[in-house]
UniProtKB/TrEMBL annotation:
Keywords: ATP-binding, Cell membrane, Glycosyltransferase, Ion transport, Iron, Iron transport, Membrane, Nucleotide-binding, Transferase, Transport. GO terms for molecular function: ABC-type ferric iron transporter activity; ATP binding; ATP hydrolysis activity; nicotinate-nucleotide diphosphorylase (carboxylating) activity. It comes from Breoghania corrubedonensis. SUPFAM superfamilies: Nicotinate/Quinolinate PRTase C-terminal domain-like (SSF51690), Nicotinate/Quinolinate PRTase N-terminal domain-like (SSF54675), P-loop containing nucleoside triphosphate hydrolases (SSF52540). Residues 1-230 form the ABC transporter domain. This is Putative pyrophosphorylase ModD. CDD domains: ABC_Carb_Solutes_like, modD_like.
Length: 524
């Protein structure tokens, strides 16, 4: 097979908004993005399954007017679309009906594809009688049997278990290289996209933009944890998977840049240096837990720069560690360096304090949880939550729906026996946890006896917290004891040693930002 170049010019259909795209012959382009961004729509347009505006070329020839069966495309839709009443071989036979191969060639083509994908033994079975991984192989074989010059893959591994998906990813890339295909794949999975793609783009709201690959492994290995930072050898590394991290939207990032430099960088303009090629580096001046690097990278890319590499949020950096490198015009880099640096410094300050508090608490009690309250500065919730989780802590009642928390200000309006209102409250929210805050040892014991799920001890001395834990254990009650109010890195170990299950703190939000150095120099 010979993969052909693909070119799209101003393609619009449904959510798609003037998409321009070039894929080299034999290239493997992966497109990531959220649901509803337009990824599947793009593949359907290329396959000829949806009307559109704009031009589509394959191999230098326009084929937007060609019907789907004449485009010589192999297409694997997300739900595979195998015909359940036809055998595996029958599904491939159907795909050959309008191909350039004669009927005499069909048996050989089918046998070759089934053999290449190691499913020859399934030829006479129905799709409903094989596993998910085997169905995926059948769909690939059906797409390849007509010897296409272009392959379109829509979330090809989304329904598979991780082990099967990982194995098939390797096989798919090997097939792509062996056959010289041109391939377009859309996926939600960032790891999948960067493992398979020669190039990765991001689709958001019907538009394509560059996707930045986190390159954190080398930086993480070279970083040296200090005595008060979490040690990955203890099984609680602060390095998080980038796919699970909260990501600020493009609109939020654009608003930050517009707020900082609404009309561009004046100094760059008056010095007439904006068009000069430049290089920018972000360096940690101190040991810290990094956060916000993904957002910094995307700001730079959206301003017209090109990010070469960056370390992921959650990476522990030693002083002198370069954690982000970018290049581009001096105008693009100067436009974003201040706001991106400020965001990283603010978020990394929170993440570092969270990491140190977690390390202190788990040094005394390896199983204790650490959660940060909702008392972040107004308007900074998203980045604050990301920073807290990057540091290895969690959020306390983030959505206000996991638990019902009763404060003394609520209890002041209640009357009657404690057990009665506790019982009524638990019955009304049977799927949630009932938490009650207390600042007195005896009251806390009474709440535990009444059957509350969690007693949250507010601003109680270490000794008092230990006494409540001891009483609950002595009574054999299942009530969880948590401590909050005034907990910080200095006293976290003492509170953790009381045996309580969770420390709740606001201290991570308050303190100086991390210290980051940004250098921009001419590229020469």
């Amino acid at each position: 097979m010979n993969g052909r170049a693909v070119r799209l010019g101003g393609v619009a259909a449904g959510i798609l908004k003037g998409v321009d795209l070039d894929v080299a012959p034999g290239g493997f382009l992966a497109i990531i993005g959220p649901s509803g961004a337009g990824k599947s729509t793009l593949l359907k347009v290329i396959a000829g399954l949806m009307p559109h505006e704009g031009g589509i070329e394959c191999g230098g020839a326009g084929f937007e007017r060609l019907p789907p069966h004449k485009r010589n495309i192999g297409y694997v839709p997300q739900d595979l679309c195998l015909f359940p009443h036809r055998t595996i071989a029958g599904n491939l036979r159907l795909a050959l009906r309008r191909s350039r191969f004669s009927r005499a060639q069909w048996p050989g083509r089918i046998a070759a594809q089934l053999d290449m994908l190691r499913i020859s033994h399934l030829a006479e079975r129905l799709p409903t009688c094989v596993s998910g991984g085997e169905r995926q192989r059948v769909a690939l074989a059906r797409a390849l049997v007509g010897e296409p010059s272009l392959m379109l893959l829509d979330e090809p591994f989304s329904s598979l278990d991780p082990e099967t998906a990982e194995r098939l990813r390797g096989e798919l890339r090997a097939i792509h290289d062996r056959l010289g295909l041109t391939t377009l794949m859309v996926t939600h999975n960032m790891e999948e996209a960067f493992e398979l793609g020669d190039r990765v783009l991001r689709m958001e709201d019907g538009r394509l933009c560059p996707a930045v690959r986190p390159r954190c492994a080398t930086l993480h290995r070279e970083s040296v944890p200090g005595p008060d930072m979490p040690d990955p050898a203890r099984g609680r590394s602060t390095l998080q998977e980038e796919t699970t991290m909260i990501i600020l939207s493009d609109a939020e990032l654009d608003a930050l840049v517009a707020q900082d430099v609404p009309c561009g960088d004046l100094t760059t303009d008056i010095l007439a240096i904006g068009a000069m090629p430049a290089r920018m580096t972000f360096t940690a001046r101190e040991e810290m837990v990094l956060c916000g690097s993904e957002e910094a990278a995307r700001m730079i890319e959206r301003a017209g720069g090109r990010v070469i590499s960056f370390a992921a949020s959650g990476t522990r950096t030693a002083p002198g560690t370069v954690f982000l490198e970018a290049e581009g015009s001096a105008a693009a880099l100067h436009r974003t360096w201040k706001v991106s640096m400020t965001l990283v410094e603010y978020a990394s300050g929170i993440a570092t304090r969270a990491g140190r508090l977690v390390a202190a608490a788990r040094g005394a009690n390896p199983d204790i949880g650490v959660a940060c309250t909702r008392k972040n500065f107004p308007g900074t919730k998203t980045i604050s939550v990301k920073a807290v989780t990057a540091g290895g802590a969690s959020m306390h009642r983030l959505g206000l729906s996991e638990t019902v928390l009763v404060f003394p200000n609520h209890m002041a309006f209640l009357s009657g026996p404690l057990e009665d209102w506790v019982s009524r409250a638990k019955a009304q929210v049977a799927e949630k946890k009932l938490m009650v805050e207390s600042d007195d040892v005896d009251d806390a014991e009474a709440l535990a006896r009444a059957g509350v799920d969690v007693v949250q001890l507010d601003k109680m001395p270490v000794e008092a917290v230990a006494e409540v834990v001891a009483r609950v254990n002595r009574l054999g009650l299942s009530t969880v004891v948590t401590a909050t109010g005034g907990i910080n890195v200095e006293n976290a170990a003492a509170y953790a040693a009381t045996g309580c299950a969770l420390l709740v703190t606001s201290s991570c939000y308050f303190g100086r930002p991390a210290d980051v150095k940004v250098v921009i120099v001419p590229k020469g």
